[in-house]
Write a structure and sequence with these properties.
- With about 350 residues, the protein is α+β, with helices and mostly antiparallel strands.
- The protein has three domains: about 1-80, no CATH class; about 85-205; about 210-359, no CATH class.
- It has helices at about 95-120, 170-180, 185-205, 210-215, 225-235, 240, 250-275, 305-325, 340-350, and strands spanning about 5, 10-15, 25-30, 35-40, 45-50, 55-60, 70, 85-90, 135-140, 140, 150, 155, 160-165, 280, 290.
- The protein has a five-stranded antiparallel β-sheet, with no helix packed on it.
- A hairpin with a 5-residue loop joins strand 10 and strand 11.
- It is globular, with a radius of gyration of 21 Å.
- InterPro entries: UCP012641, Zinc-ribbon_6_bact.
- Keywords: Plasmid.
- It comes from Sinorhizobium fredii (strain NBRC 101917 / NGR234).
- This is Zinc-ribbon domain-containing protein.
Length: about 350
């Protein structure tokens, strides 16, 4: 995620900021221009973009509960390009519901930033009734007998379900520990599940299964049985050499979705490092451990270019986390056999259209 600046006073601002801490101007993100803008009231619900005379916007309807800071062109509907995909949302009449929705919305906007940068197709359900992208953020349901029905996070033909309770840190950590996972976040859920959606749109529906199967395996393998085997027996032997994560070894679909999620993780983090001018050059480690992100990660020519910058940076980030007594931010190893998979995903998303510049 890149850094932005206030158009009025040039103070550095961040993607999730609502107000400039220097000049006090209200801020909003314009997904068409891929930029944060300082705003001045234009009367009623309309706001004028500072530095762009006569251009007005309105806030996404979810700004009313401080869930979203994205902008919409007047007359283009009530919701922004991300929120218009939402079907079920947490109960905004309760403080817990609003808090969960705010955290979920933050992760969703980070997902959509990458979708928009790569220009990945994202028709909604009105545009594509059978496979359009839609999100259900589902609360746990207490049954009359006192038991609790827990919704499963997952994907089904464009419908991405996220368990809203995992927006609570205690619940998220409990699930992570009980499933013996090293990494589990809301943003990780979004990025993994969008991987299944991307497979539907850019592999299956595009009739491009041959190269996919040569890298990931035959997805026609029984999915239910494969997951049962994974949960009973654990990851495949030798998974560390052939997969990006243990779960990726469960089935070709999960391998692909995990590679998509990791590409999103890596590229967005590299863009953040580039924005801050981060360079890694530890003494005595040799050139292979030196890295500077001197390229736009969203325009990377190959997974090797991405990995050459990412491996040293991720090692440094993990070392910093350990210095603070925290778990590794990126507790994974990108083995050489995974590079062709990441390269395939990188080529797939870059082929969607011209990569959009972040203004």
């Amino acid at each position: 995620m890149r850094l932005f600046s206030c158009d009025f006073c040039h103070q550095v601002v961040h993607f999730d900021n609502r107000q400039c801490v220097s000049c006090g101007h209200r801020l909003g993100f314009d997904p068409q221009l891929m930029a944060m803008y300082a705003l001045e009231s234009a009367g009623g619900t309309q706001w004028q973009l500072v530095g762009r005379p006569f251009e007005t916007r309105v806030f996404c309807g979810n700004a009313s509960v401080d869930v979203c800071n994205w902008l919409v062109n007047p007359g283009d509907g009530n919701f922004c390009v991300a929120c218009r995909h939402n079907r079920l949302v947490p109960d905004a009449s309760t403080p817990d519901g609003v808090r969960r929705w705010q955290r979920i919305g933050q992760a969703q906007r980070h997902l959509f930033y990458s979708i928009l940068r790569w220009d990945i197709p994202h028709p909604d359900r009105a545009e594509d009734p059978q496979g359009g992208l839609v999100f259900d953020f589902v609360d746990d349901q207490q049954q009359p007998d006192g038991t609790v029905t827990v919704p499963m996070t997952g994907h089904d033909e464009g419908v991405i379900t996220i368990r809203a309770a995992e927006a609570d840190e205690v619940t998220m950590e409990f699930v992570r520990a009980s499933m013996n996972e090293h990494y589990r976040t809301l943003l990780g859920h979004f990025r993994h599940e969008i991987g299944h959606y991307i497979w539907n749109k850019l592999v299956r529906d595009a009739g491009c299964s041959e190269e996919f199967r040569s890298l990931f395996g035959d997805e026609r393998e029984d999915y239910t049985i494969a997951l049962q085997c994974y949960h009973m027996d654990g990851p495949r032997p030798g998974w560390l050499e052939n997969y990006i994560s243990p779960y990726a070894s469960a089935h070709p679909w999960e391998d692909f979705a995990e590679c998509v999620a990791h590409l999103f993780h890596i590229v967005d983090t590299l863009e953040t490092a580039r924005s801050f001018g981060v360079a890694i050059d530890p003494p005595g480690e040799g050139e292979e451990m030196a890295a500077e992100v001197a390229f736009d990660p969203y325009r990377a020519s190959s997974a090797h270019q991405i990995a050459d910058a990412w491996v040293p940076l991720s090692i440094a980030i993990n070392a910093i986390q350990r210095s603070m007594g925290q778990r590794d931010t990126y507790p994974f190893i990108v083995s050489p056999s995974v590079f062709p998979k990441l390269d395939y995903v990188n080529r797939l998303v870059r082929a969607c259209a011209n990569v959009k510049e972040a203004s």
